[in-house]
Write a structure and sequence with these properties.
Length: 253
Protein backbone atom coordinates (compact mmCIF):
# COMPACT_ATOMS: atom_id res chain seq x y z
CA UNK A 1 0.00 0.00 0.00
CA UNK A 2 1.29 3.45 -0.93
CA UNK A 3 1.40 6.17 1.71
CA UNK A 4 0.73 9.13 -0.53
CA UNK A 5 -0.67 11.22 2.33
CA UNK A 6 1.86 10.45 5.05
CA UNK A 7 2.50 13.66 7.00
CA UNK A 8 -0.55 15.33 5.42
CA UNK A 9 -3.76 16.51 7.05
CA UNK A 10 -7.19 15.94 5.54
CA UNK A 11 -10.45 17.42 6.89
CA UNK A 12 -13.72 15.67 5.98
CA UNK A 13 -17.13 17.09 6.90
CA UNK A 14 -20.09 14.73 7.16
CA UNK A 15 -17.70 11.95 8.12
CA UNK A 16 -19.90 10.15 10.67
CA UNK A 17 -20.82 7.55 8.03
CA UNK A 18 -21.49 6.98 4.34
CA UNK A 19 -19.26 8.63 1.76
CA UNK A 20 -17.55 10.82 4.39
CA UNK A 21 -16.42 7.78 6.34
CA UNK A 22 -15.24 6.14 3.11
CA UNK A 23 -13.02 9.18 2.36
CA UNK A 24 -11.66 9.04 5.91
CA UNK A 25 -10.72 5.38 5.54
CA UNK A 26 -9.21 5.84 2.07
CA UNK A 27 -7.03 8.76 3.20
CA UNK A 28 -6.24 6.99 6.49
CA UNK A 29 -4.88 3.98 4.56
CA UNK A 30 -2.67 6.43 2.66
CA UNK A 31 -1.17 7.68 5.93
CA UNK A 32 -3.11 10.94 6.40
CA UNK A 33 -4.09 12.51 9.71
CA UNK A 34 -7.87 12.99 9.55
CA UNK A 35 -9.91 15.81 11.05
CA UNK A 36 -13.45 14.45 11.16
CA UNK A 37 -16.43 16.82 11.55
CA UNK A 38 -20.16 16.14 11.71
CA UNK A 39 -23.25 16.79 13.82
CA UNK A 40 -23.44 13.06 14.63
CA UNK A 41 -20.90 12.54 17.43
CA UNK A 42 -21.54 8.82 17.92
CA UNK A 43 -20.93 8.23 14.20
CA UNK A 44 -17.74 10.29 14.38
CA UNK A 45 -16.41 8.11 17.22
CA UNK A 46 -17.06 4.99 15.13
CA UNK A 47 -15.30 6.56 12.14
CA UNK A 48 -12.27 7.44 14.27
CA UNK A 49 -12.02 3.85 15.55
CA UNK A 50 -12.23 2.55 11.96
CA UNK A 51 -9.56 5.01 10.77
CA UNK A 52 -7.25 3.91 13.57
CA UNK A 53 -7.95 0.31 12.53
CA UNK A 54 -6.46 0.97 9.08
CA UNK A 55 -3.38 2.62 10.59
CA UNK A 56 -4.44 6.26 10.37
CA UNK A 57 -4.97 8.86 13.08
CA UNK A 58 -7.90 11.20 13.59
CA UNK A 59 -9.54 13.84 15.76
CA UNK A 60 -13.31 14.34 15.93
CA UNK A 61 -15.26 17.61 16.09
CA UNK A 62 -18.94 18.40 16.42
CA UNK A 63 -19.75 20.92 13.70
CA UNK A 64 -23.10 22.11 12.38
CA UNK A 65 -22.60 23.37 8.85
CA UNK A 66 -25.79 25.44 9.16
CA UNK A 67 -24.29 27.53 11.98
CA UNK A 68 -21.92 30.26 10.81
CA UNK A 69 -20.57 30.98 14.31
CA UNK A 70 -19.64 27.31 14.74
CA UNK A 71 -17.94 27.27 11.34
CA UNK A 72 -15.87 30.35 12.23
CA UNK A 73 -14.89 29.01 15.67
CA UNK A 74 -14.03 25.58 14.25
CA UNK A 75 -12.00 27.10 11.41
CA UNK A 76 -10.03 29.27 13.86
CA UNK A 77 -9.38 26.26 16.11
CA UNK A 78 -8.06 24.17 13.21
CA UNK A 79 -5.89 26.95 11.80
CA UNK A 80 -4.39 27.56 15.28
CA UNK A 81 -3.62 23.87 15.74
CA UNK A 82 -2.57 22.83 12.24
CA UNK A 83 -0.22 25.07 10.36
CA UNK A 84 -1.04 23.26 7.11
CA UNK A 85 -4.22 21.72 5.80
CA UNK A 86 -3.66 19.68 2.65
CA UNK A 87 -7.22 18.68 1.81
CA UNK A 88 -10.69 19.96 2.72
CA UNK A 89 -13.55 17.68 1.67
CA UNK A 90 -16.85 19.51 1.92
CA UNK A 91 -18.90 16.33 2.02
CA UNK A 92 -21.63 17.05 4.61
CA UNK A 93 -24.98 17.44 2.96
CA UNK A 94 -28.74 17.21 3.31
CA UNK A 95 -30.16 14.94 0.65
CA UNK A 96 -33.15 13.00 2.00
CA UNK A 97 -36.76 13.92 2.73
CA UNK A 98 -38.31 17.20 1.67
CA UNK A 99 -35.18 18.53 0.00
CA UNK A 100 -35.38 15.69 -2.54
CA UNK A 101 -39.11 15.84 -3.26
CA UNK A 102 -39.51 18.89 -5.45
CA UNK A 103 -39.40 22.55 -4.70
CA UNK A 104 -42.88 23.92 -4.17
CA UNK A 105 -44.30 24.74 -0.75
CA UNK A 106 -41.03 24.65 1.13
CA UNK A 107 -41.01 28.21 2.44
CA UNK A 108 -38.07 30.54 2.94
CA UNK A 109 -36.80 29.12 6.24
CA UNK A 110 -36.37 25.64 4.75
CA UNK A 111 -34.75 26.94 1.57
CA UNK A 112 -32.32 28.93 3.69
CA UNK A 113 -31.48 25.90 5.79
CA UNK A 114 -30.90 23.69 2.73
CA UNK A 115 -28.66 26.30 1.13
CA UNK A 116 -26.84 26.94 4.42
CA UNK A 117 -25.77 23.30 4.76
CA UNK A 118 -25.30 22.25 1.12
CA UNK A 119 -24.03 25.41 -0.55
CA UNK A 120 -22.97 28.30 1.66
CA UNK A 121 -21.43 26.34 4.55
CA UNK A 122 -18.78 24.74 2.29
CA UNK A 123 -17.65 28.16 1.06
CA UNK A 124 -17.61 29.68 4.58
CA UNK A 125 -15.61 26.74 5.93
CA UNK A 126 -13.06 26.99 3.12
CA UNK A 127 -12.73 30.71 3.79
CA UNK A 128 -12.16 30.11 7.51
CA UNK A 129 -9.50 27.48 6.74
CA UNK A 130 -7.81 29.45 3.97
CA UNK A 131 -4.55 30.30 5.84
CA UNK A 132 -3.83 26.61 6.51
CA UNK A 133 -4.91 25.55 2.99
CA UNK A 134 -2.66 28.25 1.51
CA UNK A 135 0.37 27.06 3.50
CA UNK A 136 -0.08 23.58 2.01
CA UNK A 137 -1.11 24.77 -1.49
CA UNK A 138 -3.99 22.48 -0.69
CA UNK A 139 -7.15 21.34 -2.43
CA UNK A 140 -10.84 21.83 -1.69
CA UNK A 141 -13.21 19.10 -2.87
CA UNK A 142 -16.88 20.08 -2.88
CA UNK A 143 -19.43 17.26 -2.89
CA UNK A 144 -21.88 17.79 -5.70
CA UNK A 145 -24.29 15.22 -7.17
CA UNK A 146 -25.53 14.04 -10.55
CA UNK A 147 -28.77 15.70 -9.39
CA UNK A 148 -27.04 19.06 -9.95
CA UNK A 149 -27.41 18.48 -13.71
CA UNK A 150 -31.14 17.84 -13.41
CA UNK A 151 -32.19 20.34 -10.76
CA UNK A 152 -35.86 19.36 -10.44
CA UNK A 153 -35.61 19.29 -6.65
CA UNK A 154 -34.38 21.67 -3.97
CA UNK A 155 -31.54 19.18 -3.50
CA UNK A 156 -30.47 19.47 -7.14
CA UNK A 157 -30.68 23.25 -6.97
CA UNK A 158 -28.44 23.46 -3.90
CA UNK A 159 -25.89 21.17 -5.59
CA UNK A 160 -26.06 23.06 -8.92
CA UNK A 161 -25.36 26.22 -6.91
CA UNK A 162 -22.46 24.45 -5.22
CA UNK A 163 -21.03 23.74 -8.70
CA UNK A 164 -21.12 27.49 -9.39
CA UNK A 165 -19.41 28.13 -6.04
CA UNK A 166 -16.78 25.53 -6.98
CA UNK A 167 -15.86 27.48 -10.11
CA UNK A 168 -15.87 30.78 -8.21
CA UNK A 169 -13.77 29.26 -5.42
CA UNK A 170 -11.24 27.83 -7.91
CA UNK A 171 -10.77 31.35 -9.19
CA UNK A 172 -10.66 33.15 -5.82
CA UNK A 173 -8.62 30.59 -3.86
CA UNK A 174 -6.38 30.05 -6.90
CA UNK A 175 -4.60 33.27 -5.91
CA UNK A 176 -3.08 31.19 -3.08
CA UNK A 177 -2.51 28.17 -5.37
CA UNK A 178 -5.34 26.32 -3.65
CA UNK A 179 -7.21 24.11 -6.13
CA UNK A 180 -10.97 23.62 -5.97
CA UNK A 181 -12.80 20.74 -7.65
CA UNK A 182 -16.16 19.03 -7.33
CA UNK A 183 -17.14 15.38 -7.26
CA UNK A 184 -20.63 14.58 -8.57
CA UNK A 185 -21.57 11.00 -7.67
CA UNK A 186 -24.35 9.02 -9.28
CA UNK A 187 -26.39 6.85 -6.96
CA UNK A 188 -23.89 5.19 -4.64
CA UNK A 189 -24.81 2.54 -2.14
CA UNK A 190 -24.62 4.15 1.30
CA UNK A 191 -26.97 3.62 4.21
CA UNK A 192 -28.57 7.01 3.57
CA UNK A 193 -29.08 6.27 -0.13
CA UNK A 194 -30.51 2.83 0.71
CA UNK A 195 -33.09 4.51 2.99
CA UNK A 196 -34.11 6.88 0.18
CA UNK A 197 -34.49 4.35 -2.65
CA UNK A 198 -37.00 1.49 -2.56
CA UNK A 199 -35.46 -2.00 -2.62
CA UNK A 200 -36.91 -2.90 -6.03
CA UNK A 201 -35.56 0.30 -7.58
CA UNK A 202 -31.84 -0.43 -7.33
CA UNK A 203 -31.80 -2.86 -10.29
CA UNK A 204 -33.80 -0.46 -12.45
CA UNK A 205 -31.40 2.37 -11.59
CA UNK A 206 -28.38 0.19 -12.34
CA UNK A 207 -29.95 -0.51 -15.73
CA UNK A 208 -29.65 3.20 -16.59
CA UNK A 209 -25.88 3.03 -16.32
CA UNK A 210 -23.62 1.66 -19.03
CA UNK A 211 -21.42 0.27 -16.25
CA UNK A 212 -23.71 -2.47 -14.94
CA UNK A 213 -22.64 -2.64 -11.34
CA UNK A 214 -23.66 -0.80 -8.22
CA UNK A 215 -21.59 2.31 -7.45
CA UNK A 216 -19.97 2.16 -4.04
CA UNK A 217 -18.69 4.63 -1.46
CA UNK A 218 -15.18 3.40 -2.28
CA UNK A 219 -15.57 4.50 -5.94
CA UNK A 220 -16.08 8.05 -4.68
CA UNK A 221 -13.38 7.88 -1.99
CA UNK A 222 -10.82 6.61 -4.53
CA UNK A 223 -11.65 9.50 -6.84
CA UNK A 224 -11.19 11.91 -3.93
CA UNK A 225 -7.77 10.47 -3.13
CA UNK A 226 -6.72 10.73 -6.79
CA UNK A 227 -7.91 14.35 -7.14
CA UNK A 228 -6.13 15.36 -3.94
CA UNK A 229 -2.90 13.50 -4.77
CA UNK A 230 0.15 14.66 -6.70
CA UNK A 231 -1.14 12.56 -9.63
CA UNK A 232 -4.26 14.75 -9.80
CA UNK A 233 -2.53 18.03 -9.08
CA UNK A 234 -3.02 19.59 -12.54
CA UNK A 235 -6.82 19.25 -12.28
CA UNK A 236 -8.59 22.38 -11.13
CA UNK A 237 -12.00 24.05 -11.50
CA UNK A 238 -13.70 20.84 -12.72
CA UNK A 239 -16.76 18.95 -11.52
CA UNK A 240 -16.00 15.26 -12.04
CA UNK A 241 -18.99 12.96 -12.54
CA UNK A 242 -18.67 9.44 -11.18
CA UNK A 243 -21.95 7.80 -12.20
CA UNK A 244 -21.24 4.69 -14.28
CA UNK A 245 -22.58 6.48 -17.35
CA UNK A 246 -26.00 7.41 -15.96
CA UNK A 247 -25.62 10.85 -17.54
CA UNK A 248 -25.99 9.33 -21.01
CA UNK A 249 -29.55 8.32 -20.14
CA UNK A 250 -30.47 11.74 -18.77
CA UNK A 251 -29.95 11.36 -15.02
CA UNK A 252 -33.31 9.74 -14.34
CA UNK A 253 -33.82 8.39 -10.83
N1 LIG B 1 -24.96 8.41 -1.66
C1 LIG B 1 -25.24 8.95 -2.83
O1 LIG B 1 -25.74 8.27 -3.72
C2 LIG B 1 -24.88 10.38 -3.12
C3 LIG B 1 -24.98 10.81 -4.46
C4 LIG B 1 -24.64 12.12 -4.77
C5 LIG B 1 -24.21 12.99 -3.78
N2 LIG B 1 -24.15 12.56 -2.49
C6 LIG B 1 -23.68 13.54 -1.48
O2 LIG B 1 -22.64 12.97 -0.72
C7 LIG B 1 -22.69 13.46 0.62
C8 LIG B 1 -22.74 12.30 1.60
O3 LIG B 1 -23.85 11.47 1.30
P1 LIG B 1 -24.10 10.03 2.01
O4 LIG B 1 -24.84 9.20 1.05
O5 LIG B 1 -22.83 9.55 2.58
O6 LIG B 1 -25.14 10.45 3.13
P2 LIG B 1 -25.03 10.50 4.74
O7 LIG B 1 -26.37 11.00 5.20
O8 LIG B 1 -24.54 9.21 5.25
O9 LIG B 1 -23.92 11.59 4.99
C9 LIG B 1 -24.18 12.94 5.22
C10 LIG B 1 -23.48 13.33 6.49
O10 LIG B 1 -23.64 14.74 6.64
C11 LIG B 1 -23.95 14.97 8.01
N3 LIG B 1 -24.67 16.24 8.15
C12 LIG B 1 -25.96 16.50 7.83
N4 LIG B 1 -26.28 17.76 8.17
C13 LIG B 1 -25.16 18.30 8.71
C14 LIG B 1 -24.86 19.57 9.26
N5 LIG B 1 -25.80 20.54 9.35
N6 LIG B 1 -23.60 19.79 9.71
C15 LIG B 1 -22.66 18.83 9.65
N7 LIG B 1 -22.90 17.60 9.17
C16 LIG B 1 -24.14 17.34 8.70
C17 LIG B 1 -24.78 13.79 8.46
O11 LIG B 1 -24.79 13.64 9.87
C18 LIG B 1 -24.08 12.66 7.72
O12 LIG B 1 -23.08 12.05 8.50
C19 LIG B 1 -23.89 14.40 0.69
O13 LIG B 1 -23.44 15.74 0.44
C20 LIG B 1 -24.77 13.93 -0.46
O14 LIG B 1 -25.59 14.94 -0.94
C21 LIG B 1 -24.48 11.28 -2.14
Amino acid sequence: MTQRFAGKTVLVTGSAGGLGRAYALAFGREGAHLILADINEAGLDESMTLVEGVGGSASTHRLDMADEAQIQAFGAEIVAKHERLDVLINNAGLHAGEIARGFFGLGQAKWQHFFAVNTIGPMLLAEALRPALAKAKGVIINKSSMASYNPATAYGITKASLNVFTHAMAMQFGADEIRCVGIAPGLMQTEAARDGVADDNWERLKGMQSVKRQGTAEDIANLGVFLASDEGSFINNQIILCDGGNQMRGFRI
